[in-house]
Amino acid sequence: MRILVTDGETRSALAVTRSLGRRGCDVFVAGEVTGNISSYSKFCKGSFQTPSAMTNGEKYCERIVDIISEGKIEIVFPITEQSIFQLNSIRDKISQEVILACPSRKDMDAVSNKYRLFQLAEEVDVPIPETTYVKGIEDFFQKESELYSFPVVVKPAYSKINSGDQVIAASVMYACDRDELINLYETKPALRYPSLIQELIVGEGTGLFTLFDADHHLMLFSHRRLLEKPPSGGVSVVSESVPLDPEMVKAAERLLSAVQWRGVAMVEFKRDVRDGRAKLMEINGRFWGSLQLAVSSGVDFPAHCLDYYINNRPTCVIADYGVGYKLKWFFGILDHLIIRIKNRNSVKIPIEVPTCWQVVGELLNIRETNTSYDVYDSKDMKPFMLEVVSYISGLLRVQRGPTKS
């Protein structure tokens, strides 16, 4: 089977490429540069360059259609939310013989729109942080005087906002007091659109990963984040497989059933230290950054996802997996450490993080048992070698500063 994996620059694309390549599929990789970590894998049969899905969506779609024809592609795995958004807009232009392995635009909007997602969670009795729903900048100034407890977390409704010809990249933000909150809404373009203001939940973050079919789980896996980048909350750089939590499994099932979800999803929770309840943080309707941990622990989501889209008649195949397995992203840990050192006197968010010496221990402990790595693979070394070169080049560019003309 000839498969196209988009967004080859991402770690999740690399995990998909390796998984399906080991299965014997002919895997091709698309990316903004042909020399990306996924294209360097020995399991990649060929690579294609595309325009940016973020900044040039129309040209990106045209290029993908050409690649499908040129490469005789049978199934496309879009990896990032923006690629899914763009390719969903041209489903009718893709041959019916080609499978677009991602949820529909309607389904994606149901989980990626945080404003509506948290309202849905309340409707189906899934615990959420205390939340103020903000329709826009005017609505904020009508409601901000009602907020009494800080710090707060500010979440734009979408992580990517299409504004005319531009795409605004939006991320989670924090405010320790009212002045910081007002400044965010006055200066951040993403907050001109619907957003949420939530209480900060202190507790362990847990991701529940599922392959879901309308009203039930097919595959399940769970992990906890041990280190993130940035340290205040972001992508996982050290994670560990944990047993399934029945409360989270049922909550995810209620949410995804409510929108008749079909495909993979990561449902993220935090267990509130105050009342012990697992509270919804977000849902990502795509492959996640720590995908390799699930594969290494015995749950090969890319392979099962392939079967799901090909056979179209899935049966319940929930499997056991190894608990206590770790996944480390070497350069992610290094970035976490650098951020901590640079900002050691300016941490405002009250979160519990390991000491810098403990982070150094994670970085240097390369012989730890039951541990795998995101990019490094002794049997597929070229992606890691490329990452080393790219990282060092990036550090040198930062040290040199901008080039003068």
Question: Would you kindly provide a written description of the structure presented here, covering whatever features stand out?
Answer:
The chain is of the alpha/beta class. Among the domains are: 2-102, Rossmann fold (3-Layer(aba) Sandwich), CATH 3.40.50.20; 130-199, Dna Ligase, domain 1. It is built from 13 helices and 18 strands. The chain has a seven-stranded mixed beta sheet with strand order 16-15-12-13-14-17-18, with helices on both faces. Strands 3-2-1-4-5 form a five-stranded parallel beta sheet, with helices on both faces. Strands 6-11-7-10 form a four-stranded antiparallel beta sheet, sandwiched between helices. β1, α1 and β2 form a beta-alpha-beta unit. α1 packs across α10 (301-311) and α11 runs antiparallel to α12. The protein is globular. The relative contact order is 0.13. The model has no long low-confidence stretch (mean pLDDT 90).
List segments where confidence is low: pLDDT < 50 over at least 5 consecutive residues: none
- CATH fold title of the domain at 2-102: Rossmann fold
CATH architecture of the domain at 2-102: 3-Layer(aba) Sandwich
Task: Work out the radius of gyration.
Answer: 21 Å
Q: How much β-strand is present in the residues?
A: 15-25%
Determine the number of helices (DSSP H or I, runs of at least 4 residues).
13
Q: What is the total tally of β strands?
A: 18
**Average pLDDT:** 90
- The residue fraction in helices comes out at 25-40%
CATH uppermost class of the domain at 2-102? Alpha Beta
Strands across the major sheet, in which order? 16-15-12-13-14-17-18
